[in-house]
Known about the structure:
186 residues; mainly beta; CATH 2.40.50.140; 3 domains; six-stranded antiparallel β-sheet; 2% helix
Amino acid sequence: MTGSKTISPGMTLNISGKLYRVETCVKVTVAKGTPFIKTKLRDLITNQIVEKNFKPDQAVNDVTLVERRLEFLYPEGKDYLFLDIGNLEQILVPTSIITDKVTYLREGVEVKAAFYGEIVFSIELPQFLELMVSKVEAEKPAKKGQPPETRTAFLETGAKIKVPPFIDVGDIIKVDTRTEEYIQRV
């Protein structure tokens, strides 16, 4: 437990049994009335943003998420099976946690997972991955007689990104998973 005066962006709060990450917080003072702390909180399960106000001296339950390294094994039904590298236990992670990151998962990829107890609340991919190009779409030239500036490449994991025209099927490329951009050919 801590006081609401210490709330800051990035903190994780337990409110009525639900976990929220503080996205923004502002101390609001009003001419007539009691000042308060206005926050925007992200529900760690549904990923929805909610607004909540706190009194300046209100007690809040600050929690710490534990970070663990997981290695992707394979899809298991609608969920995804990972191996906890620290204790070699298998962890089933729901699709709702993986979201669109699934397009960069392949066997052996290590991720950071944020846990509260035994529940996974988020997955963070490595910033850079080296992946093979499985298909390239030819695009119309930008100007008549000129080669295209970029083409669309489909990667071995199912991700789709823009690449320079010299990239071809079978090439291994480095991809920034945060911006979903081509970095270089490996």
